[in-house]
């Protein structure tokens, strides 16, 4: 049936044009700091009303793939993640660009994005139902265990000082508590201010910490104007020698992205950080991470694109959105009279396989478009800072305001921009802050739900083997980090 879906797709010129348009539209929204894939899909959702269900949904999934992949461009060239899913790409992508290897970093990132997307689509086609059957068994305690384990990976992102890394993560969790509490909606740290009742949105926090702080750093420290960095670029930017030792990293990161994507509510913004941490912990040279190596880019870009197929699995098989983008896609399905769930494969199997075919084609189009534009992307480094920086600030402001149409989000953007700059100056790492901010709500929500279901009995968690497995992994991760820290101090003292 998948083969016949491909034939039907190529026989429909309009569907092909919409897929190409969707990919390019998504790449633009993903690459520009402050604009998001969710915003792009939301903008184009009404357009699908006049299209057939296959053509409309194909365009939306093409925007999803293009948007997730496009985030690597600004992450590598400007140290500004275009999307939350590209946070970890900054860690090694920007150092490579500063060393004159922007083309290589982009080329490897595009290849990793393509591999991760194809891997997840293949998994989606083959193992959708078994994976969905497993995730439906996840309750509050299981999600609590997953988030607890993810939080222990802060040790891998803490940099040279574990104390500063933990403080950064705690600050992130602290800012996440501002607003209405989950479950009971109690006001916390709002200071009787209406704007603070909604808390701080992820986009202004992320863009402020990375994009605005980078602009401030460039303006204040003129010698750090990296927009004039020399670069080298040949062919696709990379060769076989650059990736021949990365097969294990590619597969491992794809599996991590797929697994995280399947879990509703977590998504690519977490999977890239977790995959980066796992790659660093599994590496023979973890000290090189953050200095500009391909391992980090591959881990981040493979996992965030693999989460695309992962997030689509619960959407198609259970009708449960895996992240913000698939929540909009759910609306797209319903707009065309389709109800995602187990019966979708029986009543509209042709539409499901048409989406599979469109996603595979969109992945290929994404790779072709981005490799074709490689030289144009790299030339961004040659734009003078007095032109580039104001444009970036304006785009960040527009993106933050357009999120909820609140001027407060623009002030939040500036606040976290200044905070990010100060944190860099005192050598406090930013990644733990972001991880803590993202996971804090899920951590608290699932802990409180679990305790409610158990009537306050904390021992109830021991009747959930999946939760205990993740908690055991969290304990192992902490012990491992402590042992490694002791060894490093002993080595330094010697």
From TrEMBL:
Query: Which residue ranges run through the membrane?
Result: 12-35, 55-78, 105-128, 140-158, 165-183, 189-212, 313-333, 353-374, 386-404, 410-440, 461-483
What's the protein name? Tripartite tricarboxylate transporter permease
- Entry keyword annotation includes Protease: no
Q: Does the keyword ATP-binding apply?
A: no
Q: Which organism is it from?
A: Treponema parvum
Record Pfam families: TctA (PF01970)
Keywords tagged on the record: Membrane, Transmembrane, Transmembrane helix
Q: Which residues form the DUF112 domain?
A: 16-435
């Amino acid at each position: 049936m998948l083969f016949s879906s491909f034939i039907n797709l190529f026989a429909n010129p309009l569907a092909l044009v919409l897929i190409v348009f969707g990919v390019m539209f998504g790449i633009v929204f993903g690459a520009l700091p402050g604009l998001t894939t969710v915003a792009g899909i939301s903008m184009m959702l009404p357009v699908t009303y006049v299209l057939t269900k296959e053509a409309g949904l194909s365009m939306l999934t093409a925007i999803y793939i293009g948007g997730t992949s496009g985030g690597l461009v600004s992450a590598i060239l400007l140290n500004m993640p275009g999307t939350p899913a590209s946070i970890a790409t900054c860690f090694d992508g920007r150092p490579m660009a500063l060393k004159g290897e922007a083309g290589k970093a982009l080329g490897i990132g595009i290849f990793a994005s393509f591999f991760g997307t194809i891997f997840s689509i293949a998994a989606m086609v083959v193992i959708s139902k078994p994976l969905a059957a497993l995730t439906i068994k996840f309750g509050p305690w299981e999600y609590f265990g997953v988030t607890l384990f993810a939080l222990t990976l802060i040790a891998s992102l803490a940099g040279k000082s574990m104390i500063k890394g933990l403080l950064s993560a705690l600050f992130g969790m602290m800012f996440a508590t501002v607003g209405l509490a989950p479950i009971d909606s109690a006001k916390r740290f709002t200071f009787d201010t209406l704007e603070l009742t909604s808390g701080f949105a992820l986009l202004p926090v992320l863009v402020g910490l990375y994009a605005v702080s980078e602009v401030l750093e460039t303006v204040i420290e003129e010698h750090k104007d990296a927009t004039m960095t020399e670069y080298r670029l040949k062919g696709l930017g990379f060769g076989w020698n650059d990736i021949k030792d990365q097969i294990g990293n590619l597969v491992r990161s794809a599996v991590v992205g797929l697994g995280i994507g399947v879990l509703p509510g977590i998504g690519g913004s977490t999977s890239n950080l977790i995959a980066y941490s796992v790659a660093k912990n599994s590496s023979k040279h973890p000290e090189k991470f953050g200095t500009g190596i391909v391992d980090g880019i591959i881990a981040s870009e493979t996992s965030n694109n693999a989460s695309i197929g992962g997030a689509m699995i619960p959407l198609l098989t259970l009708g449960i959105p895996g992240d913000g983008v698939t929540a909009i896609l759910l609306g797209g399905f319903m707009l065309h009279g389709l109800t995602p769930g187990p019966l979708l494969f029986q009543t509209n199997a042709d539409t499901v396989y048409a989406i599979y075919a469109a996603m595979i084609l969109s992945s290929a189009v994404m790779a072709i478009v981005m490799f074709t534009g490689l030289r144009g992307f790299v030339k961004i480094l040659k734009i003078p800072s007095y032109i580039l920086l104001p444009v970036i600030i304006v785009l960040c402001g527009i993106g933050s305001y357009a999120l909820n149409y609140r001027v407060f989000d623009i002030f939040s953007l500036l606040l976290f921009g200044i905070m990010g700059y100060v944190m860099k100056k005192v050598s406090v790492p930013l990644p733990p802050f972001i991880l803590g901010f993202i996971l804090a709500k899920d951590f608290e929500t699932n802990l409180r739900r679990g305790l409610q279901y158990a009537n306050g009995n904390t021992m109830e968690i021991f009747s959930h083997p999946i939760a205990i497995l993740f908690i055991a992994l969290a304990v192992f991760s902490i012990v491992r980090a402590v042992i490694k820290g002791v060894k490093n101090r002993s080595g330094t003292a010697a």
